[in-house]
Amino acid sequence: MRHTIKQSELILTPEGKIYHLDLAPSQLAPTIITVGDPDRVKMVSKYFDTIECTAQHREFKTHTGTYRGKRISVISTGIGPDNIDIVFNELDALVNIDFEKRQIKKKLTSLDIIRIGTSGGLTPEVEVDRFLISTLGIGLDNVMHYYDKTDKIFNRDFAQSFIDHTQWNPDNSVPYAVEADKSLLKKLSSSTTDGEEQKTLQGITITNVGFYGPQGRVLRAKLKDENLNEKLSSFRYKKKRITNLEMETATMYGMAKLLGHRAISMNAIVANRASGTFSENAPRTIDALIQYTLRKISE
Ligand code: R1P
Ligand code: URA
């Protein structure tokens, strides 16, 4: 007898849609682009051939349609790792749980999930307006620690080396490290035929729970560790260094691997923390990354 999932755990609307995303299984494409900002959804879907459905509940806005014949859903996650927990569990439920029977399906489906987000470059080479693909995410959030069977997902050696180098304060969190999906990394990387302006950097991305203190920014509130970003910049693992900071990538990589999906994070670098600069035209850079990503997905 298969386990039936209770109403309080798998929450469905009277129309049979999953609670936060407000989507029915038929409204989700197998390739999903996630963006933080709900207003960025239309920046992606304006390139679609057709839009077959739209939905919005809270910060979770979806447009599903086709791009060069390929069916794609673009969904906003809002800001932060906590929202990634909601979005990834609900995306997985839409394909892997039978909503009528409230049971896990016998045959599971893997989704391709591609983040198009903004990020801050940590080191001088990660200049504003560049594109960066995250090869690995270092998670300083705690979402993944609530789940079992993360042993095979985490790169423990990497995380320990990060903890040792930064003398990480255990009161903050337990850092974890998760690699990107290799097939999507290859598919989304630039090739020799790409124009110079579209060359993507690859790097190691820090995901944290906040934009200010947790990314070492000081406005009025002083930090406990004033050397946080200096420690992040001087960290090396097998000669590789941390390149950028944002708020979703590592959690996405962890949740995707845990649930059997493929995820990759594409970053438009809008700030550079070493030079203290911010992009003079962030929307243009984001638009260029959207066009680059759509082209790569559809190749
Ligand atoms: C902070 O401004 C937000 O920007 C980045 C961070 O990860 C965080 O969500 O991504 P998005 O531009 O995709 O939201
Ligand atoms: N998003 C972030 O989280 N950090 C930055 O520095 C820029 C965008």
From TrEMBL:
Catalytic activity line of the entry: uridine + phosphate = alpha-D-ribose 1-phosphate + uracil
Family annotation (Gene3D superfamilies): Nucleoside phosphorylase domain
Cellular component terms (Gene Ontology): cytosol
EC number: 2.4.2.3
Domain Nucleoside phosphorylase: 32-278
One example of a Gene Ontology biological process annotation: purine nucleoside catabolic process
Top enzyme class: transferase
GO molecular function: purine-nucleoside phosphorylase activity; uridine phosphorylase activity
PANTHER family registered for this protein in UniProt: FI09636P-RELATED, URIDINE PHOSPHORYLASE
Protein name per the record: Uridine phosphorylase
